[in-house]
Amino acid sequence: MKLQSQNPIGIFDSGVGGTSIWKEIQLLMPKEDTIYLSDTKNAPYGYKSEEEIIELSIKNTEYLLERDCKIIVVACNTATTNAIRILRQKYDVPFIGIEPAIKPASLQTSTNTIGILATKGTLHSQLFEKASSNLEDKITIIERVGEGLVDLMEKGKINSPEMIELLTKYLKPMISENADCIVLGCTHYPYLKKLIKNIVGHKIKIIDSGPAVAKQTQNVLSQHKLLKQNTSSSPKYYFYTNKNKATLSYFLKEYPNSIIKEISF
Ligand code: DGL
User: Domain containing 165: what range?
Assistant: First the structure.
């Protein structure tokens, strides 16, 4: 397939979390057409095996390539850390991934201690283990699986007492152990920033790599001469989910021109 600058940007995640990345992309490149795929039926990916995550990532990529996407943004830390290497080998299209920003956090910590909240699949991936062991002689990294957080979000229970209870349980020990930076290692978590700040206090830095991923997407499109040229037509924002579009619609309520559909894939 010849990649065309007029084609859409393809983005996928296991659920609604990747819309936090879509929003950054839309902010930076509002004229680009986008297709967002939410594999809600199979969420969460965080407890699946590496093989299953690879298989689902291939399925999502093929769906987006069949719709002529010019670049694929893997808006999921779990899928990136477990599958992006295989995707890049298999398909001749640029891929952008998202990995927990422990390196930037290591440059910002004053206490030499950072906390990271991510899925089990991300924290146990070879890619993450290698990245963290490279830093561990300089800083202490407190890892915590955000068990249950994605499930609550997919049910739309974002500001619920259960959410606050789980976040408190995961984050307070990091602060007691002197962490001054918290890395959000899952694209669902930027939506929890306000709750997190209330729990950890305003002095703690919350590190979110969403804006950097959008910038990287723009850079790669520019390098490949794939930035949309004719920007006079209004952009089309498609969102597809294979289960219950209510949560997706909730997270996109400030974007009335987005087209949200339940489909089977
Ligand atoms: N949003 C995802 C991530 O960044 C996936 C969470 C999940 O499905 O467990 O890891």
Answer: 102-208
Same structural domain for residues 128 and 42?
no
> Which of 98, 186, 192, 213 is flagged as catalytic?
186
Ligand 1 shell residues, CB under 6 Å: 13-15, 17, 43-46, 76-78, 119, 122, 150, 186-188
Asked if residue 2 belongs to a domain, the reply is no
Q: Which residue CA neighbors atom 2 of ligand 1 most closely? A: 76
Same domain, 64 and 162: no
Dihedral of CA atoms 163, 99, 175, 159 in degrees, nearest 10, equals -20
What residues of the chain score a pLDDT lower than 70?
A: 1
Residue 231: predicted pLDDT: 72
Classify residue 235 by burial, with Cβ atoms within 10 Å: 0-12, 13-18, 19+: middle
Q: Among this protein's residues, is 181 annotated catalytic?
A: no
Which atom of ligand 1 is the closest one to the Cα of 44? 8
> Are 122 and 162 part of one and the same domain?
yes
Which atom of ligand 1 lies at the shortest distance from residue 14's CA? 8
> What pLDDT is attached to residue 3?
80
